[in-house]
Amino acid sequence: MSRVTGLVLLTLALPCLALDNGLGLRPQMGWNSWNFFGCNISSTLIRRTADLLVSSGLAEAGYTFLNLDDCWAKGRDKDGNIYPDPEAFPEGMKTLGDYIHSKGLKYGVYSDAGFETCAKRPGSLHYEENDANSYASWGVDYLKYDNCNTDNTTARSRYPVMRDALNKTGRPIFFSMCEWGLEDPWTWAGAVGNSWRTTGDIDKTWNRTMWILDRNEPLYKYAGPGAWNDPDMLEVGNGMSDVEGEAHFSLWALMKAPLLIGCDITTMTAATKTILMNKEVIAVNQDPLGVQGRLVYPSGPNPHGGEVWYVPLTSNTGAAIVFNRGEMTIDFKFKLSNNETMFHVRDLWLHKDLGITDAVQGSVPPHGVMMLKLRPAGGDDIPMTVEGFANSVTLQSNFVSVVNSFLSSETT
Q1: Among 383, 407, 255, CA closest to 331
Q2: What are the Cα distances from residue 334, in Å, to 372, 399, 405?
Q3: Is 201 a catalytic residue?
Q4: What does DSSP say about strands 174-177 and 195-197: parallel, antiparallel, or unpaired?
Q5: What is the pLDDT of residue 316?
Q6: Which among 85, 98, 184, 201 is annotated as catalytic?
Q7: 129-162, pLDDT tens digit by residue?
């Protein structure tokens, strides 16, 4: 790798095709019922959640989609029109949507590109236009579209049918594809949906979250405004430690993942709320440049667990995460460039300016992060891009030995 001055330019490949519905120019933010409630949903729960999204300040922070997942539907009438479970949603779906909209929120529902949903409720296969018209008449703003109980045709053939049905209604409806990454949707779904799941479902365990992280990260070149990789919803507040919750939230934000709350916000702790409400981290996720961040160190075996992730942002700034995947506290120090360039550095979790410097150092606990905002101190002549940042790290004599090492905690 050649020596560079400061941080050099990398042109990232964004999707050459994107669904032209004007939606999803930034990753979607909101709340989804599935991770915590599963099938135990009702109008009462959804109304209570809508109220709290607003009163808690979450909606103001950007969490505006309120999405019902599986189990709201019950059957179809004689004309093939879908209807909700009358016990759980006695007022009907339009009235519920009207309430959600009255709170200034957006209304999301769920269906499936199969005969039945994953929970054996009616799917939309061969009923795409019926269902799209129903959604539009109810005021739906968002559709999550799953991939269970199909006719064994490809997702690539089934998902565009619902895209076309949604577009035909004339109502802009965010199309969230959930085929679990089985057919490499990142290579074709930009012309079909606004986001696509890249893996199977997340759960509240650290190991599963890391497994998903590692499969979503290499797909950075396929994401961009209107077309996002989706590593699944947030598990913050569902059993991870607060340190792990900060790491999970930071990494999802840097990867430009959808930020969809998956916990019960009516009982969330103050610490969970603080994580979800970190407006500086949210701003990284919602940055209009729309580049998915990625791992820049290490590029090979990683016995110590220390990692550095980076994403370029607008206004010639960037954000970096020092992430401790390991089980012992790490101490680190690394230079921000391979010359004397100085940077304004801000810690996004401490909400504290760290001054003007050419190096960063600190300690990170197991499963924790330090997340930093970086801006050149000398003006706009140094592009704050991914390759440049990667070069500046990897040129530091193997990084680990220069930094008092990520290994230091293992030898003390």
Answers
A1: 407
A2: 13, 7, 9
A3: yes
A4: parallel
A5: 87
A6: 201
A7: 999 999 999 999 999 999 999 999 999 999 999 9
